[in-house]
Design brief:
75% helix, 0% strand, flat
């Protein structure tokens, strides 16, 4: 239920903020902001236990974090 509420809230935030921006720029901007809001909210609310291992694997692959 929290996931749906988070998704709807992120959608409406993006809709209200970028309603006047059209075209490719608007699509990219709305997508980036939606992803940032949704991913941040998922981490903060701890919606899935799989997020932390995936985040660590992502950091390791980018070279941000060294392997344990």
């Amino acid at each position: 239920m929290y996931t749906l509420v988070l998704g709807i809230a992120a959608y409406y935030c993006c809709y209200m903020l970028f309603d006047h921006v059209h075209g490719f720029t608007g699509m990219v901007t709305r997508s980036i902001v939606f992803l940032a809001l949704f991913i941040t909210g998922s981490f903060v609310m701890k919606l899935s236990p799989d997020l932390v291992p995936v985040w660590h694997a992502f950091q390791k692959r980018l070279g941000i974090k060294k392997g344990d």
